[in-house]
TrEMBL record:
GO terms for molecular function: DNA binding; endonuclease activity. The keyword Thylakoid does not apply. SUPFAM superfamilies: Restriction endonuclease-like. This is Restriction endonuclease. One of its GO terms (biological process) is DNA restriction-modification system. Keywords: Endonuclease, Hydrolase, Nuclease. Residues 34-115 form the Restriction endonuclease type IV Mrr domain. The keyword Cytoplasm does not apply. It comes from Bianquea renquensis.
Length: 280
């Protein structure tokens, strides 16, 4: 039984589980690599490990990561079970192998609650066939903003005629502030938000303010506004379909060896999708 890369493989497992835990909302947990745990009778070297405390109870998980060229045999699973038996009660075990497990090893894992996974590149896993392809549909959405206009309170405008002229040809970097909510936008950002709100097709929309003002870009003046009106939204520009080979998009696959469920990662080992359905 030969080893291919050793420690780099273990570090990849550490990296992917840090992402999976973060995706599951456990982003404060530190996933550790190559640590020594003291058992009931002896100390054990652990490839990957994490723990967390919940209401006074410590939950521990240890991972055995093997990039052996052959399938993990029954004897290796029994050895891992012995390590788990020597660690504090309730310690969860996960065995991850690059090239899978012999049937006897999987049977032992099932009998003793050990999770078993394979982790390898998409090409090595041959995911979804010899040259799996994904069809991608590209739809370009073009933002629409027609007749955008800020409206001032009439009484305020009458009392401040010397600065109301600044409302003509406003620079899109001018700052809009809603004093009631504390929110601020540049005009560009506000238009983008309203386009997102209106969606497709574009529609007339009025954003009302109870206490808001606009500061024309490059000035110190603040002008009261009570609403912003216009037609906002998106139009579909064009549709285009093209194909991508799976190995151009998916770099690595973590597969549950018992039920086939997978997590997929890109070529930089960044999590793309959590708990995806198996493709084969």
């Amino acid at each position: 039984m030969t080893k291919n890369t050793g420690i780099p493989y273990e570090k990849m497992i550490q990296h992917i589980y840090q992402q999976i835990l973060t995706c599951e909302g456990l982003d404060t947990i530190n996933v550790q690599h190559n640590i020594i745990l003291k058992g009931k009778t002896t100390s054990h070297q652990i490839d990957v490990y994490w723990e967390f405390n919940l209401r006074g109870i410590v939950y521990r998980t240890v991972i055995q990561a093997k990039d052996w060229a052959n399938k993990v045999p029954q004897g290796a699973m029994l050895t891992f079970k012995a390590v788990l038996d020597d660690l504090p009660s309730g310690t969860k075990g996960i065995f991850i192998a690059k090239n899978g497990f012999q049937r006897g090893a999987i049977n032992i894992a099932k009998a003793h609650g050990i999770s078993v996974y394979t982790f390898c590149s998409a090409v090595e896993e041959n995911w979804s066939g010899p040259i799996p392809m994904i069809e991608v549909a590209l739809r370009l959405r073009v933002p629409v903003c027609i007749r955008p206009q800020f409206h001032m309170p009439l009484d305020w405008a009458r009392d401040n005629t010397r600065i109301t002229g600044l409302m003509r040809d406003l620079d899109p970097r001018s700052l809009v502030t809603d004093n009631e909510t504390g929110e601020s936008w540049t005009i560009n950002r506000l238009i983008t938000e309203l386009c997102d709100r209106c969606g497709t097709p574009p529609k007339e929309y009025t954003k009302e303010f109870h206490d808001a003002e606009i500061q024309p870009f490059g000035t110190e003046h603040r002008i009261k506004i009570q609403e912003f009106t216009g037609i906002f939204g998106y139009q579909t520009g064009y549709d285009e379909k093209f194909h991508i080979q799976v190995d151009q998009l998916v770099g690595y696959i973590l597969r549950d060896a018992t039920n086939g469920r997978i997590d997929i990662f890109d070529n930089n080992v960044t999590l793309l999708r959590n708990e995806a359905e198996s493709n084969g």
